[in-house]
Amino acid sequence: MSGDSEMMDRLAAAAKAGRLSRRGFLGSATAAGVTAATASGLWATHARAEPKRGGTFRWGIHDGNTTDSHDPATYTTRQQAFLAFQHRSTLTMIASDNTLAGDLATEWSATPDATEWTFKITDKASFHSGRKLTAEDVVASLNHHRGADSTSAAKELLGAVTEIVADDAHTVTIKLSGGNADLPWLLTDYHFVICPANTDGSIEWRSGDGSGPYRIDNGEFGVRWDLSRFDGWHGEGAYFDKVVMLILNDANARQTALMTGDVDCISLVEVKTLSLLQRAPNIEIDNVASGSAITMPMFCDRAPFDNPDVRMALKLAMDREEIVEKIAFGAGTIGNDFHLTAGQPYFPADIPQREYDPEQAKFLLKKAGAEGLSISLHAADNVLPGAVDMCVLYSEQAKKAGIDITPVRAPNDGYYADVWMKQPFTTAAWGPRPTPDVIFTQAYQAGAVWNESHWDNERFNELLPIARAELDDAKRAEMYREMCMLMRDDGGTIIPFFNNFVYARSSKVRHGPEQAANWECDGARAPSRWWFA
Q1: What are the pLDDT digits (tens) for 56-79?
Q2: DSSP label at 39?
């Protein structure tokens, strides 16, 4: 066998194992002297992995609480989001190649001003209880997040919605007070799963009934979920017969479970042990660049963080390059205190990167009358393996600016319920959002349920609905750039870095060549997209 043939065999094997994307395969093949047309043909005939059915997929996941529930309005943790994508459905979803795709919706269209959207719903969908899913269920499920009494974290995403109408059994029209070109992307949010409607227009969420690829057999929040394939599912995939979700909040417990064969996949790898795990036999690592942000929100309406100079001093007192190197071990992108990365639409690449400047931080503290600033910073390793270590490192860096930061280790269980948005200075991890409008609306708009920093900037709030309705991409980009500058220079959120999604699986678990970057494990849809070799 020639050397070129051996190389192509290795490339094909890597692609079949899910270690090489189509782009990577084609690039390596052409670099080896194969023409682009031939390489494409080889990909189609040899490298593409072929799914197989069968087996029980055991999935060790991080970030689950005993206090979680099936109510979509309360979804906060990975446990809730990951489980929701298995036993429930959304109108639209993010595909493995990060494009927009239909889930329940087979097609959608809008009026020219994007103030009215119509979605066609598949007639093949039914709930696990046997009832057919109709437009009335979609209307009730979306309305669950609306209304004056709603406390849903997704309420603001539907703030411009004036009416949701079932035109017939399989058609839904959503009417808006202002245009929203991103609405189909917005509806991929994990809160917008569809539940059975009650006769009064509310939804029945307590039973866990859904129309997703797997039905719940039994389970307990914060512990374990047992699911089995729903043969009446309307979609493609769901190759495993059964799925077991084990909530393993401890990083060592997760990785030990994978190495001993007790689970087939873990949702989050502790990057400081990544090199060790890479040497383990029969384990594959997926390291996916994402828009997942690690944040440090400060309450802008509480001293000392109500002073913009103090907020800026704390931003300047952080050496982000050192944090990415020592905490993310290179598996991340340096943050610039605005919530967009280069892989997201409308990213303003020309905004200068913030540098570590303890002397300027010291000057600003003196100007604010806050010399000798002493504060506490709460964290839990459930946010990110090494989150507490990150706070300790930041504390050391900030000393050069005369700032005394006391890291406080909080319990993993209940962190997002009991600490985040309760304490004035915390750490958090945000999953990627598909468009700027989604994350800006959820996390930075004044009054938003998840406005973790209590930031209220008049100009930002003014621009948000204008940018949302703007159909001219160039004008929209200008507005998003201004909003990013406002976040960077006035906002109450420090963004140390955007972390890659690093997860691991047994080599017997296969997936396609692309991995969705909106959540860990292929957009949190590994059970319906992956299979056993």
Answers
A1: 999 999 999 999 999 999 999 999
A2: H
- pLDDT tens, residue by residue, 453-509: 999 999 999 999 999 989 888 999 999 999 999 999 999 999 999 999 999 999 999
Amino acid at residue number 211: S
Q: Judge contact between 161 and 172, C-beta under 8 A.
A: no
Within 10 A of 188 (CB to CB), how many other CB atoms are there?
Answer: 22
Beta-bridged to residue 247, according to DSSP, are 61
Which residue's entry shows tokens 């002297």?
A: 33
CA atoms within 13 A on the CB side of 132: 8
Residues in Cβ contact with 230 at an 8 Å cutoff, skipping those fewer than 6 apart: 128, 211, 212, 213, 214, 215, 238
Rounded Cα gap, residues 525 and 475, in angstroms = 35
Question: For residue 197, with 0-12 CB atoms within 10 Å meaning exposed, 13-18 middle and 19 or more buried, which class applies?
Answer: buried
List the end-to-end C-alpha distance of the chain, in Å, as a whole number: 26
In the chain, count of helices (H) and strands (E)? 18, 21
Q: For tokens 């959608």, name the residue.
A: 108
The H or E element that residue 137 is part of is helix 135-143
Q: Indicate the pTM of the whole model.
A: 0.78
Q: Could you please report the per-residue DSSP string of 347-395?
A: --TTSPPP---HHHHHHHHHHTT-TT-EEEEEE-TTTSTTHHHHHHHHH
Residue 368: CB partners within 8 Å, gap ≥ 6? 304, 307, 309, 310, 313
User: C-alpha distances in angstroms, 63 versus 66, 81, 282, 288?
Assistant: 10, 10, 26, 19
Band of pLDDT at residue 140, cut at 50, 70 and 90: very high
- Segments in 160-268 forming alpha helices (H): 183-186, 251-259
Say whether 62 sits in a helix, a strand or coil: coil
Contacts with 37 (C-beta within 8 Å, 6 or more apart), sequence order: none
Q: Do residues 53 and 156 touch, judged by C-beta distance below 8 A?
A: no
